[in-house]
Amino acid sequence: MEMTEAVFVRWLAGDGEAVAKGQPIYEIETDKVENEIEAPAAGRLRHIAREQVTYPVGAPVGELAEGGRD
Fold this sequence. Notes:
The chain is mostly beta strands. 0% of the residues lie in helices and 50% in strands. The chain contains no helices and seven strands. The chain has strands spanning 5-11, 18-19, 24-30, 33-38, 43-47, 53-56, 62-65. The chain is elongated, with a radius of gyration of 12 Å.
């Protein structure tokens, strides 16, 4: 069974916040299992997704720009 969508539960890092690689930045829920998603790189986080909205897998939920914590 392949996952096709997930509920974006909540942000764990603020909009505009500098985040480190590996830092948990948001939570998603699939089939009643919540997962924390980590930043793939250091950068300054910009929120795109809204909390408690269902998104298809692969949809952009945020952006990371240079200027994060190492």
